[in-house]
Amino acid sequence: MVGPTELLNTVWIGIIYMIIAIPLTLSYRVTRIINFVHINFITIGAYVGVILFLQGVNSLLLLLPASFLFGAAIAVLNHFIAFSPLEKRGANPVILMIASLGLWIFYKYMIYAILDLGQKVFRTNLFSVIPRATSLPSVSLGNYVLSGHFFAALLVAGVIITILYILLSKTAIGRAIRAVADNPILAEISGIPRERVVSITWALCGGMAAIGGLLWAVFAIATPEVGDALILQIFAVSVIGGLESLLWTGIGAFIISGAENILMSILNATLGVPVSFRPFISFSALLLIILAKPPLGAGGGLPYRFKVGLERFKR
Amino acid sequence: MTLGFDVLGFLISWITLFGTYAIISMSLNLEIGFTGMADFGKVAFYGIGAYLAATITAIIFLVVNGIKCPLHSVEAIVALKKCASKNPLLNIGTFVLCLFVTFFVTGGIGYLISYPTLRVGPAFLGITVLSFGELLRIFMRHFEPTGGTKGLAGIPHPLAWISNPRLRDGIYALVILAIMLLTYLVSERIANSPFGRIMRTVRDDEIASLCLGKHVPRIKASVFFLASGFAGIAGVLLAYYLGSVNPDMFVPAVTFNVWAMVIFGGMGNNKGAIVGSAVITFVDRISFVVNLLFPEAIISPDYIRWMIIGVLILVTLLFKPQGLVPESPMKSPALKIISDELEGDNGA
Question: How is chain B split into domains, by residue range?
Answer without folding.
Answer: 7-252
